[in-house]
Amino acid sequence: MRDYLCEDTIAAIGTPLGKGAIGIVRISGKRALPILKEVFRRKSGERVESFENRKMTYGIVVDEFEEPIDEVLVVFMGAPYTFTGEDVAEIHCHGGIVVTRKVLREVLKRGARLAEPGEFTMRAFLHGKIDLTQAEAINELIEARSELYAKVAVKQLEGSLSNKIREIRDRLLETKAFIEAAVDFPDEEIEILETGKIKEKLFEVKDEIEKLLKTYREGRLIKEGIKVAIVGRPNVGKSSLLNAILMEERAIVTEIPGTTRDVIEETVTFKGLPLRLVDTAGIREAGDIVEKIGIEKSIEKLKEADVVLFVIDGSAGFVEDDRRILKLIENRDNVILVINKKDAGLRVKCEKLRNLFKHCVEISAKNLDGIDELAERIMELVVLEPESILDGNEVVLTSERHYELLKRAKESLDKVLTSIDSGYESPEFLSIDIDEALKSLGEIVGEVTTEDMYDIIFSRFCIGK
Ligand code: GDP
Ligand code: ZN
């Protein structure tokens, strides 16, 4: 259960695992200082009773037997001027990741609890350090059932969306200032507007908004899961592939009853991707959709699928029966050809079928070979820029609220542009629609609030204060 009252003192390693010479253990909460005093000693072994705020102190971390674990630099930062708004202590370890973990373990032994993903940021919100989109991201994070989704949510939590929205808003404000100049200096009005500068600026802003809107498709897939159908003739290894995927899976997360009575979907995480295996029961039982439910229903299923995995037995080649199935999925750009049984020697390779299949991967379901690559291919198909999402560089919309408000902002801008084109009446007129767009953007980050908005968002929290 999450700790919305921030009673616990939490701790975690705050640096990327594995890399870098320094590992930082971050502690936040009421007991940050007492815990720091417990584990920290001067090089001489002497306890330190008071730390200067925000000043690094050099020394060692000891275990409960006063045995040194690592040489460290520590810093204490008192509430409220910290990231979380609470007392924060940081221990900068120099002995590599193993040692950093040991230091963390000591900290946990002295009464801190291991922080959940995003929990430091959640506290920042609870203490009023972050805005609405960031707060919403906390919900997303709690609900996140795959690493990829968690990554997107964490990014939003860190303010990526807020920053983007503010950037768009600032550009729009600039444009508005331009228009208002036209109001204030009516003589120059026509000249200013005729420069085309306003239109140009509006198009730029609109472009930014449209780019963001486009990410909603992938955002939804990341959030709700990617529907995957596996097809192929008997004995090519569909069940084996399914097993390979299920083996990767950390946990079966949900069972969603489908829209029709007889369809069951299962969501699994596969290499960090949320996959919804369509008609899993059927797939498991009979090996594949075509076998189980017949051609017609299969076609329906294939239509619904975000990704179709077309499995063939590469050791047998691309045979007549494969062609029959190919007919079903022709003209679809979301098909990945999976050439299986690589271990048995392939008679057909991706190279050869390049003109038929844009996306192809050679695997051995038996040896779990090529499974990573398959995950990458799936990702490429549904996600615009997988690397940038994984690096956390891309802002991805996952919330319908954000999507709708952005759409409204765009519509307001369309109105402005139409007015300009159709020989507007007066610049004040344009300003009204620009204000509408600004209002929509403001609502996203919570600067402009509507009455029910907080209710909707915060009813999901059990903040209790
Ligand atoms: P399905 O009918 O398409 O579901 O195929 P299965 O998964 O049941 O596999 C059919 C046969 O192919 C079984 O004997 C599997 O052991 C074998 N098989 C599946 N994948 C591989 C593979 O990667 N390499 C080899 N050599 N055999 C495989
Ligand atoms: Zn099978």
From TrEMBL:
Positions contributing to K(+) binding: 235, 254, 256, 259
Residues reported in the UniProt entry to bind (6S)-5-formyl-5,6,7,8-tetrahydrofolate: 26, 90, 129, 465
GO process annotations (BP): tRNA methylation; tRNA wobble uridine modification
Cellular component terms per the entry's GO annotation: cytosol
Alphabetized UniProt keyword annotations: Cytoplasm, GTP-binding, Hydrolase, Magnesium, Metal-binding, Nucleotide-binding, Potassium, tRNA processing
HAMAP family: GTPase_MnmE
Role summary: Exhibits a very high intrinsic GTPase hydrolysis rate. Involved in the addition of a carboxymethylaminomethyl (cmnm) group at the wobble position (U34) of certain tRNAs, forming tRNA-cmnm(5)s(2)U34.
Protein name in the entry: tRNA modification GTPase MnmE
Source species of the chain: Balnearium lithotrophicum
Lineage summary: Bacteria, Pseudomonadati, Aquificota, Aquificia, Desulfurobacteriales
